[in-house]
Structure formats: structure tokens, C-alpha cells
Amino acid sequence: MRAGGTRSGSSDERVWFVPPSLRAALAERYGPVYAGAEAERRVRALGTFASCGDKVTELALRVDNLPVLGLVDFKTQRNEPVDPTAFAALAAIGRRRVVNPPGTLTERLRRAVREMLASGGGLLEIDGEEDLGSLALVEALPLGATVIYGIPGAGVSFVTVDGATKQRVRELIGRLERRSVDLGA
Fold it and tell me: In the 3-class helix/strand/coil scheme, how is the chain assigned residue by residue?
């Protein structure tokens, strides 16, 4: 709904889908991956950073280093339960919920990342799947920041935001299939 409570003429939104031909490129590791005590040490030492995924966001909070923005969907690939109260410290800063279906990157998610970063950050809850949210984070964070996300069975990936990673993200998004779909209100 628009401000004022009226519906726009169309609720279609831009959504980028992952074509099968791009899955391998998106699965590539774009930064070093660390596990266990080394991952904890490195997360604890981070300056400005954002997290994409329940387990890595939970890890950052556990080691007392709040990301400026954490993206979660309350699910893990290993189907381990995630306690929503684990994210309370981030939710206290700001909280928003957006729809982002599995295998997609919605304009709604990209916009929410930009807006939340501009207003001080917090917790961005994803109804669907947050995996491609790491692209939106690299796209929106300032140079020198870090994006962390989980690699199932391997650990935590650390991607430094610089000109090259921003360019790589622009190229990847440009290769996604763009469609307009109705995501509802």
C-alpha cells in the first residue's frame, strides 16, 4: 500500500531470478572462509559489517559484535532451529520484514537494505529466503565494510566491500533473469 492507504494501480515488482546457468557462479566463494574458533575470532574483530544468514548473525551477536544489518529468515539449510530471541539486540536498533521468495532477489529486499542502512541498521527479517541478500549488502555497504555469510559445511565467508566486489555484484545481478511479479502487499 502507498502512504495514505491506497493501493497503487499494480502491485507488480521487479524480481531477479537465478537461472540454472548462473548457479555455479553464485556458489563460488568470493572471500576467505573460516570455521570454528578462527571464524569467531575474525567476526569479533570486524569493524563495519553486515551479516546474511541466521547462523552467522547469531554468531556475531554471541561474540558481542553487532552487525550494522543482519538478514535472517529463521531457517538454516541444516534445519537447525534458530531462536528468534537470539536477534533481540539487533531488532532493538530497527526491525523490518520483507518478502523475498527462494531463488530470487527482489527490489523490495534491495530497497529495504538501503533504507535500513541509511536509518541506522538493525534486523531485516525475510519471508522466504535471504541467500541472495548478500548481493544487496555488498551493493549498499560502504567501501571497506565486510559482508559475512555462511557456507554450509564449510564456515563463514568474509567478503570485503571494495570497487571490485561491487562491480562483480553488479555483473551478477545483470545476469539474473528479471521479471515483474505480484508479491502481494
Answer: CCCCCCCCCCCEEEEEECCHHHHHHHHCCCCCEECHHHHHHHHHHCCCEEEECHHHHHHHHHCCCCCCEEEECCCCCCCCCCCHHHHHHHHHHCEEEEEECCCEEEHHHHHHHHHHHHCCCEEEEEEECCCCHHHHHHHHCCCCCEEEEEECCCEEEEEECCHHHHHHHHHHHHHCEEEEEECCC
- Inform me whether the pLDDT recorded for 25 exceeds 90: no
Sequence spans of domains, the chain: 33-111+126-172
For 77-88, write each residue's pLDDT tens digit. Answer: 656 767 889 999
The pTM score is 0.85
CATH architecture of 33-111+126-172: 3-Layer(aba) Sandwich (3.40)
pLDDT value at residue 82? 78
Candidate from 8-17, 50-59, 65-74, 155-164 with smallest mean pLDDT: 8-17
